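# step 3/5: fold
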Amino acid sequence: MSEPGMFHGWRSRVFYLTRNRRFLLRTTGTIIAAGFLIASLIVTARSGPKKPGSQVSVVEQGLQEGYGRLLAMPEPDPRGLAAWLRRQMMVLVGSVKSDTPPPAEAFDAFSRNGTILGRNLSQIIDKHTAGATKELLLDFIRGSLVADLPEGKLARSRIEKLARREPPERLACELMAGFAMQVEDASVAARWMMREGMTFSEAAEARRLAVSLAINAEDIESLRQMRAVPGWIEACEPLDQHLAGGLIQDVPLQWRGLFWDHFTNVPWLLVGFTLFAGLVWFIILVQHDQRDAWRWLRPLLPLLAGVLSVWPTLTILFWQEQVQGLKPGGPFPHDLWYYIIGVGMREEVCKLALFTPFLPWLLRKRVPGRALITGALVGLGFAIEENVQYYAEHGLSAAMSRLLTANFMHIAMTAITAHSLYRMVRSRFAEAGQFAATFAAIVLVHAFYDWLPGYEPLSEEGGWFSFVILLVLASRFIDQLSLETEPRRSTFALRAVFTLGCALLIAGVLVCSALNARSMAGVADAAKDCLAYIPIAFLYWRRFENA
C-alpha cells in the first residue's frame, strides 16, 4: 500500500490520498497559502492611490439626493421637506461628522441669499410650504444654526409653544424632536416624535423614528404607549420590532420581529460563509454517527433546535438587563458575575432546554455516542444563528473571528453538558451530582473564556488564558467523542474532512478579512485567530488517525 499505483479506481485513490499525511499537509498548506495570496492581492488592489477629486461622504450624498427629489416633486411635500431639513441641520450643528462650515457661517449665508452648502433652501421652502408652516421651518433653521443667540432662542421658544398647545401645530413636535436629536438626547426626541405621530395620521416617519429613538434611550414607558396603539410598532423595521419587544417584555413581538429580520437586508455573503463553516462541522459530526438511511436528514432537527435556542436566550438577555439590571461593564467582580449568570448560565440553559425534547428518543434508541453528537449539533445550530446576530450588531470583522472558535466552543460545551444530562436521566438520576458538576464547570468555562480577554488587569495575558481554556475544552470533547463513538472507515477519511474543511474556512476568513479591513493588519489579526485551530487539529488527528 506504499504506492498509489496499487489502487485502481477513484475510490481507491481517494481512500489512499485522504489517509496520506504528506498529501493532507501539503494540500492544507496550499489552500491556506492561496487564501493569504488572494487576501494580499485584494488589499493591494484596494490600497492604491485615490482617484482625484473630492470624496463625497455617504451622509452628504444622501442629502444631495434628497434635495434633488424635493426639487423634482410636482406636488408640495412639507413633511418630507421637514425630514430632509432636520437631517441637514444635524450635519451643520455637528451631530453627524461631516466637513461643513460652522453653523453661524451657514446661517449668514442663508440670510444673505437663501443657500446653504450650495443648495437653495429658500427655493424648496417656498415650493413646499406657505404661511405658518413656512415660518415654522424658518424658525427651525434659526433655532438650529444660532441656538445661543437671542434670535435662535426666540425661534425655539415659538416652536415649543406651538408644539405644546392642544392640538399641536403640524410639524412642530417633529422639529422639537430635531432640536433634541442635535444634542443627542434620544429620550426627549422620542417623546416629541411620539406626540407628532399620535396627533397626525400621515406622520409615518415620525412614528418610526419615535420607536427607534425610544429603543436607543431604553424608554420603556414610551414604547409601551406606542405598543398600545394598534399597528404602530408593527409598521417599523423588523429589527426595531424585535428590540422593542425585548425591552417591554413582549415575547411574541420580539420573536416575530427576529423572524422577519432574517429576511430583511440579508447579508448573503456572511450567511453563505457561516453556513459553509457549519457544514464542515455538520459533516464531521454526521460521520461520527452510526450509518443508517436517515443519518444525513436526522441531524437537521437538532441543528434547527440549536438555531431556535438563540431566541429564548435573547428574551432572557432583555429580562436580565432591563428587569434585573444585570449589564456588562461594571467593576470586578460584577463584570465576572455578569459573564457567569448573564452569559454562561443563560446560553447553556437555553441550549440544554432545546436538547431536552430529544431525550425520549435517545433513551429509547440508546445508540452509542448519539446523545453527544445530538448535543453537538444543537451547539452548532446556536453558533450559526449567533454568528449572524453578531454580524448585525458588530459588523463583519467580529463575525469572521467567531466562525472558527465560536463554532467549536458551542459544539464542545453543548455536547459535554447534553451527554451528561443524558447519562443522568438514563441512570434515573443516580448521576445527578456528576451532571451538576459538569454543567457548573461548563458555565464557568464559558464565562471565563469570554471575560478574560476584556479584563483590564489581564489585557495582555487574558487572550492566552482563553486560548488555554479552548485547548482544555477541545481535549475533553475530542477524547469523549473518541470514547463514545466508533466511526466506520469510509472512502474519505475523517481527519481529511476535518483538515481540508478547516483549511477552506481559514482561507475564507483571510479573504473576508481583506475585504472588510482593507489592510494587511486586519488580515494578520484574522490569521492570529486561525492559529487556535493548529493544536485542535493535532488533537483530532491524534485520536482519529486511523478512522
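# step 4/5: annotate
The chain is about 75% helix and 0% strand.
# step 5/5: archive (pending)
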